[in-house]
Amino acid sequence: MIYYPNQKNQELLKVPIKSCCVPRPIAWVSTISKDGIPNLAPYSQFQNLTFDPYYVMISINQNHNGRRKDTTVNIEETGEFVCGMVPYHMSQEMNITASPFNSEIDEFEAAGIKKIKSNSVKPYSIEGSPVQIECRYTQTLRLPGKGTHGTVDIIIGEAISIYIDDNYIGSDNKIDIARIKPLARLGYSDYTYVDKVFEILPSDKACSVEDALKGLVGASDSSL
């Protein structure tokens, strides 16, 4: 089968595009408006970009009215945001915050989530989220779309501090991902979570394992 994106009358009845790059980690993004209204929304088109400095990106489509979403507006106007990890036990709360609430609604309150003062930025952190990346806005790359939703804002921010719940740091000094069971998107309305972790050390065919690990683990020369 060959599928042509954005063409009608194809054999597949459900659009497969968001199931072709999976699983996608979910950034539970906390922002605050210039008027002081908290906002919380999940985005699965999310990833880290590099580690020295540590940049992350969130890809945010427009809403059903063809307007930029509150998250985008808040980040650009205030210059700060928090990306929280979504543990499996908070999947229902995450789903509530994915709803298209009006700008004056506080999604923390709508989903029954307690706000926590962040360490380095004004937007609140999420009680119960075991890993939260506090970011300073860097820039927006805007890609034009063909329809109402298609235009996308790629938000790039620099991580200035990372909160990690001590209860999820294992005896090996690593984040215990399998215990957190972080949610990820699979396209459609399908999700998964990580509950199994295994290690593959880099090959020593081209350089030492130690040298290869520096890039893989995200260790900059200044942090060694």
Structure overview:
- It is a single chain.
- Helix content is 15%, strand content 31%.
- With 224 residues, it is α+β, with helices and mostly antiparallel strands.
- The chain has a single domain, classed as Electron Transport, Fmn-binding Protein, Chain A (Pnp Oxidase, Chain A, Roll), CATH 2.30.110.
- A 7-stranded antiparallel sheet has the order 3-2-6-9-10-5-4. It has a 3-stranded antiparallel sheet with strand order 1-11-12, with no helix packed on it. Strands 7-8 form a two-stranded antiparallel ribbon.
- A hairpin with a 2-residue loop joins strand 4 and strand 5 (54-61).
- The longest helix is centred in the N-terminal third of the chain and has 9 residues, at 70-78.
- It is globular, with a radius of gyration of 19 Å.
- The mean pLDDT is 92.
